[in-house]
Amino acid sequence: MRCLDSTFLIDLLKGDSGAADKMGELDSRGEHLSIAAPCAAELLIGAHFKGGDLVRDTADLLSRLDILEIDGQVAAQAGRLGAELLRRGKPLPTTDLLIAAAAMQHQQVLVTRDEDFHGIPGLVVEGY
Question: What number does CATH give the domain 2-126?
């Protein structure tokens, strides 16, 4: 099971060959694909800002993914992760913490090129 980060999906929408190859690999394996709710919001903000066909393409892409909701357990996990990273002197934005916590809560691997996620204890990250 894979949770797709906004960096991956933005690259995919832009036609990045690495992201396209990775999506082909995931599709061929029949991977269960999801996105954390904050990632969906990030994508939709950008799509609506740019407008045009990107809104439709983004909505179509999101319709094929399960959306991992943010609930009390995910928020609590994000709080623990955020505090730990603050202690280490490596704070992350709340959005990133919620994305990581959602992937962890649902026992999914996060697919991203964002290096900040590699420092999150307990999070399994896969690049492309």
Answer: 3.40.50.1010
User: Which pLDDT tens digit goes with each residue over 18-36?
Assistant: 999 999 999 999 999 999 9
What distance in Å separates the CA atoms of residue 4 and residue 36, rounded to the nearest whole number? Answer: 8
Is the Cβ–Cβ distance between 114 and 5 less than 8 Å?
A: yes
CA 120 – CA 26 distance, rounded (Å): 23
In which residue are the tokens 């609590």 written? 76
Convert the pLDDT of each residue in 64-98 to its tens digit: 999 999 999 999 999 999 999 999 999 999 999 99
Rounded-to-integer distance, Cα 50 and Cα 38, Å = 19
For the beta sheet containing 33-36, the strands, ordered from the edge strand earlier in sequence to the opposite edge, are 66-68, 33-36, 2-4, 109-111, 125-126
pTM above 0.85, yes or no: yes
